[in-house]
Amino acid sequence: MVRVGVRIKWKYLTKDGIQACAKVHTSSSVVPLGSPVTATCVIKEDCPLVTGQAFHIEWRLDDRLILSSSETNESSRVSKAVISSFNETRAILTCCIQTSPPQVVAGVEIRAGYPPEVPQNLSCQTNLTTPLTITCRWDPGQRETHLPTQYFIHTEIWDANKKRSYELPKGVHHYTIPRPEFVLYSDMKIYVKAVNELGETTSAPLILEPITKFDPPKIFQVMSERHRCLRLRWNLSPHQLWVGSNNMNLEIRLKSVFARNAKPSRPVDICGLLHWTQYFAQIRVRYQQSPWSEWSSSQSGVTLESAPTGSLDSWMKISGDHMPKQLNISLFWKPSKQFRANGQNVLYIVSVRKLPGEKGQVCSTRENYCTFQLSGRVKKVYVRAVNAAGISPPTEVWIYKPKAHPAVLDVTAVPYGNSSFLVQWESMVSLGLTDHVVEWRPLLKTDLSLIRFEIAQQNLSSIVITGSFEPYKPYGISVYPRFTDGIGLPKTVNAYLRQKGKSPKTQRGSHKQLTWDQIPLDQRNGIIQNYTVFYWDQKGPINKERSVILKDLNVYDAFLMVRTLGGSLNGSIIHFEFEPFDAVAVVMIVIASGLGLSLLIIFIVLTCFSEQKRLKGFFWPAVPDPVNSSILRWASESTQVQKEPNPIYLSHLSFLDLPMKLSKEEDDLWIKSAEETSDLGDDSVPYATVMFSGLCNSPPPKEPHVYLRSESTQPLLETEEPFTPKCYQNLVNDGMTGKQCFFGPSHDCAPKEETDPSGLWEDFPFLRALTMNDTQND
Amino acid sequence: SVCRTVVALLLYFLLAALVQSAPVSSPSNPSQAFREAAGRAKTLVEKILKDIPAVHTTVITTEGLTLDPSSQTTNLQMMVMELGIPAAPVLKPLSESFTLDMCVSHMLVGGRLYQELLVVLSNKLGGLQDLSADLRDLLTHINKMKEAAQLSGDSSDQNSLDLASRLHGTYEIQVAAHLTLTQLRSFCHDLIRSLRAIAAYRPVAAGTR
C-alpha cells in the first residue's frame, strides 16, 4: 500500500497496479441546467483508508459541503449524493472520506447547460453576379447554451444525388455555398443542425431552386402601334441576361397592375388602354416563384389618337333683343363625364346641320364658347369635337326661347372648401322643369370666356361648383331653371370665396364729421358689413361707434375699421384737433353779427328820424326837461311879465349849495348851470327850491328834502305837511292814478291816494298850473 | 407439379409483362417534366455560351489563340491529335434514323467529354470552375430529360481521356484549354438547335414502350 497524494486521490498499489480508492458514478456528467444530479461514490474494499475502521463519506460541490445519504456499512461503502437542482454551469463534485484531515477519494466534473434552440429564420439567397453562390443565414436563438454547440448546414440535391454537410466555426451563423455545390435550376433542400452534449436540433428545411431575386429589368422603349395598346421593349439586367427566356414572370405597372408571363428580349403588348393618354410603365421580374425584383425605372409612352367620343354638356343663352327674325345666341359647352378627347388640339364646330360638312357651320373654335346669330326658325344646332384623328358624333342643342317664368325663388352661395362654392336654391314646382343650370362668372372681368356653368339634375336643389375661384374677388352666381320649352328667369347672387377687410381711405370732413370714400368693387374683397370708427383722445379710453359725432373740444386720434364676413381691416390713424371756433364758424359769426348790427343801426336811425311820433314816443318818450320847461318865465325881460301870467310856468328855480354832493349822473340831465339862476339878485327870496339828491332809483337820501320858497310874500310855512314826494312827479288832480313816474320806475312811484288832491291845489296854485300845463302838453 | 410450374411461369411472365407495359406514373405528366428539363437545359446552354468568351479571355493568355474561328482550326489540327482531344458526337436533326434517344445520348456523351476535359484543365488552370459547374448542371438536366422521357440511354463506353499525362507544359495546357473552349462552344450551338427541335418534338414514344 502506498500513500500517494494526500490531496488528490487515494490510490493504492495492488498487484494489478495503482488503483483508485473510490469511484464516483453519475448518470451523466453533462446535465440540463437546474435539473437534479445524483452521484454515487463507491469505495473499494481494499482501500486502505477504510480497512478496519469506521469511516464517514462526505460530498463536496466545489468547496461546499452538500448533503448526502450515506449508506455506509462495512460491506457496501456506497454513498449517494443528490443535488436537487444543479444551477451552475460547471462544478466539481468530490467524494471525501472524513478522516482527519478529510481525504478526497474521487471526483467528477459536472457541467450543465441547455440543449441548443432550433435554428430559426433560415434564409438563402442566390448571388446572381459572378461567381454564383448561395448565402444562407439563420438565427441560432437567444438562449445561451453554456455548452459547446456545433452548427452544421446540410444540403441535399436530388437531381445530382448529392448530400453535403458543412461544419461551421463557433459563433458563425451563415454560410456561403460555393458554385460547385449546387445545381442551377435544380431543387435543393437546405437545413441547419445544432448539436451539443445535451441534444441536437434541426431547423425547418428550406427548399429552393438556386435562382432567386433578380436585379430590376430595364425598359428600352414604350411605343404605340395599335390603338389603345402600348408596346414595351425590355430586357433583364445585363448580368442576368443568361437566365433564359422560360419561366420568367413579368409584372407591369401602369396605373393598374398586370401580371404577364413574358420572355425577355421580346416586346410586351398592353392593351385595353385609353386613347391619347400618357402612361408611365415600370416592370419587375421573377423566376417562377422567386421573390420579385425591384421595379425598373419608369418609362412613358402615349397611345395613339382617335376621334373624340362622347357628348358635350351645353348651355345656351339668348341675349339681346328677342327679335323673332334674328337671335343672338351665346353657346357654352364643356366635356361631359363620358367625353373623351382622344387627341390633341380639339376643335369644336357648331353647325345647324346634323351631318358634318362646310355648309351650315356657324362657329368653329378651340374655345369652349361661341356667340353667333341665328334665324328664329332654327330649332337646334349641333356641336362636334374634331381632332387630327376624326370627328365626334354630334351633340344636339335645342334653341330655347327665354321664358319669363321665374321658378327660382332664392339662391345662396357659400364657400365650400378651398376653391368651391355650395350653391343652394329653392325653386317652385313647375310643369316642364327639366333641370337647373348654375352659371358663374367673375364680376371684375366681363369676358365671355370666363363664364362657367354646371347642370344640376331635375330634383337637385344644391350643387357644389368647383373652379378656379380666387379669394377676395366677387363672383356672380346665377341659377337658371330650364323647361322643356324654354329657359326661365335666373336668380343671381354675388359671392366671395374668402373675404377680408380692406383698408378704407378716410377723410377729414368739416369740423365734426368724418367721411370716407366708398371702396370700389375691385378692392372690396368682400361684402361690406359695417364700418366702425375707433377714436380716443390724449388720455381717454378708446371708444368705438358706428357713427360718431365728436362733441367735446379736445384733441382726438381716430381710425376707421371696415368689416366684411371674412375679416376686418383698419385704416390709418388720423389726428383731430378741434379749434373752438372753426374758420367757417368764425366767418359765419362775423357775418351774422355784422348783419345784425347793421340792421340794428338802420332801425335806430329810422326810428330816430321817423315822423311817427307814436313810434318815436315809444322808444324815446318826450320827457320835458325841467330846466327848460317853465310855467312862467321869470326872466328880467318885462315882456314876459306882461304876458298873461301863465300859471303853467314854474317859478325860477335855483340850486343852492347842497350839503351833500350830487352824483355826476344826475347832473347830466337835470342840472343846469346854477349861474343862470342866480342872476335874479341876492335880494330875492327863493320861493321854492327843489332839492333832490338823486334819481328815483337811487336810494333815498337820509336828510329830508328841503323846500324853500322863492321870493314870495307869503309866509314860509315852517310846518309844512311833509309831503315829500320821493320823486318829482306830476300830481294829478283828476284822480288818474297810474301816471308814470318821469324819473323811471320806482317802488315809491306808485301814486299815493291817501290825501285829497283837490285840497292841495288850493294851497299851491303854481302846482296846479303845472298840472294844467301837463294836460296841455298831451 | 409440371402444370403448376408452367402456370407459375406463365403468371410470372404475365405479371412481368403487365408490370412492364403498365404506364409508369412517376411524373404525373412526363411530357411536362421533360419539357421543363429541356427548358432548363437550354437556359444553361445559353449561359455557357454567354460565359465562354469571358472565360476564354481570362484563361487563355497565349497570343494568337482567340475564339475567332477564322484562323485557328487548321493550324492546330496536329495539336488536337497530339493532345488526344476527341471530337464531340454530332447532333443531327431529329429523324427516323436519329431518334430522340440517340439525340439525348449524344448530348450526354458530348457533355461528359467536355466536362472531363474541363475538370482536368481546372487542376492546371484557374478560372474554369464556374464553367465546369455549369456544364455539370447541364448534364444533370439532360439526365433528367432522359429520365422523364424514359429514354434508354446507353452509357456509351467512354474512353477515359488521358489528357492529364499529355499536358507537359504551359503551351500544351493553353492549347488544350483553347481547343476545349472552342469545341465546347460549337457543341453548345448544336445543343441549342437540338433542344429547340426537341421542344417542338412531341415525345409520342414516351411511356408507351
UniProtKB/TrEMBL annotation, chain A:
It is found in: Membrane. It comes from the Eukaryota. PROSITE patterns: FN3. The keyword Repeat applies. The chain crosses the membrane at residues 583-609. It comes from Amphilophus citrinellus. Residues 118-217 form the Fibronectin type-III domain. Belongs to the type I cytokine receptor family. Type 2 subfamily. Pfam families: Lep_receptor_Ig. Coiled coil: none annotated. It is a single-pass type I membrane protein. SUPFAM superfamilies: Fibronectin type III, Immunoglobulin. One of its GO terms (cellular component) is plasma membrane. This is Colony stimulating factor 3 receptor. Keywords: Glycoprotein, Immunoglobulin domain, Membrane, Receptor, Repeat, Signal, Transmembrane, Transmembrane helix.
From TrEMBL, chain B:
SUPFAM superfamilies: 4-helical cytokines. Keywords: Signal. The keyword Signal applies. GO terms for molecular function: cytokine activity. PANTHER family: GRANULOCYTE COLONY-STIMULATING FACTOR. It comes from Amphilophus citrinellus. This is Granulocyte colony-stimulating factor. GO terms for biological process: positive regulation of myeloid cell differentiation. Residues 1-21 form the signal peptide. It comes from the Eukaryota.
